[in-house]
Write a structure and sequence with these properties.
Length: about 260
């Protein structure tokens, strides 16, 4: 049996941890959970300890480290603290499908990384179209062959071949519109700062037409309109995301 370390990073994720980790006791080869926590102010730590008590065969290790607008840093820290070579990484608002659980329980590595598809559940609807449709991410990998990159929307970049699978992770990212807008404001701050550090500038044309182009792409060409009202809400808010990145970047260059 190939032992696997589950890596998660947290910031006030108590509610999600309570809801999304009942599958863990069905994966006996996950023998440790490495959590890097950004000094949560809710009951995240207590909830993790409670989860540990329910999974006696899993070792839980919690490391607190300030995010400092760098998600890859948190991920790479979790990888470095893992005792196993094989890492499964999830966010607290994600749940692996039964097929992934079965895959992990019978895991016989032939590649050095594996990608899974992700389905977003937004306002009670599983989105099949638009920006979030048909996305795949490397989620299971050998830690010796790569590292996480990008301050935000971080990805594992492997130096070896990746096996793409059709296995699905369910993603429950935004329980309500308020939390969605709050995340957009947070992530656009990080992205604008990242572009500014790279000395990238923006202009009036980009501020106006990049968000418009993003909406047309997601809602029309990627068929977001087929996801009904949740589809147009997502397309509009992601267009707003594009606008905020460039507006904040422009402001940084003025200050």
């Amino acid at each position: 049996m190939t032992n696997i370390s589950l890596n998660i990073i947290t910031k006030n994720e108590s509610e999600n941890i309570q809801k999304n980790f009942s599958w863990l006791n069905k994966c006996p080869n996950i023998n440790e959970v490495i959590c890097v926590d950004d000094f949560s102010s809710d009951n995240t730590i207590e909830t993790l300890k409670s989860l540990s008590n329910k999974n006696k065969n899993v070792n839980f290790f919690i490391h607190q480290n300030q995010l400092n607008d760098n998600f890859s840093k948190q991920r790479n820290l979790a990888v470095s603290k893992s005792t196993n070579n094989w890492i499964l990484w999830l966010d607290p608002d994600e749940t692996p499908s039964k097929k992934i659980v079965n895959f992990l329980n019978n895991f016989n590595p032939r590649y050095q990384s594996y990608s899974f598809k992700r389905e977003d559940v937004f306002m009670g609807r599983t989105l099949k179209y638009g920006e979030t449709a048909n996305q795949s991410f490397v989620r299971l990998f050998n830690k010796n062959y790569g590292k996480f990159k990008n301050n935000v929307h971080e990805v594992w970049q492997s130096t070896r071949s990746t096996k793409n699978t059709n296995l699905i992770i369910k993603h429950y990212p935004h329980p309500d519109l308020y939390s969605f807008l709050h995340k957009i404001n947070f992530y656009t701050n990080i992205r604008a700062q990242e572009l500014y550090r790279k000395r990238i500038k923006t202009n009036l044309f980009q501020i106006i037409f990049f968000p418009l182009g993003k909406f047309i792409q997601n809602y029309i060409f990627r068929l977001g309109f087929l996801d009904s009202i949740p589809g147009i809400i997502l397309a509009l808010t992601m267009s707003f995301h594009s606008f905020l990145v460039r507006a904040k970047l422009w402001k940084l260059w003025q200050d």
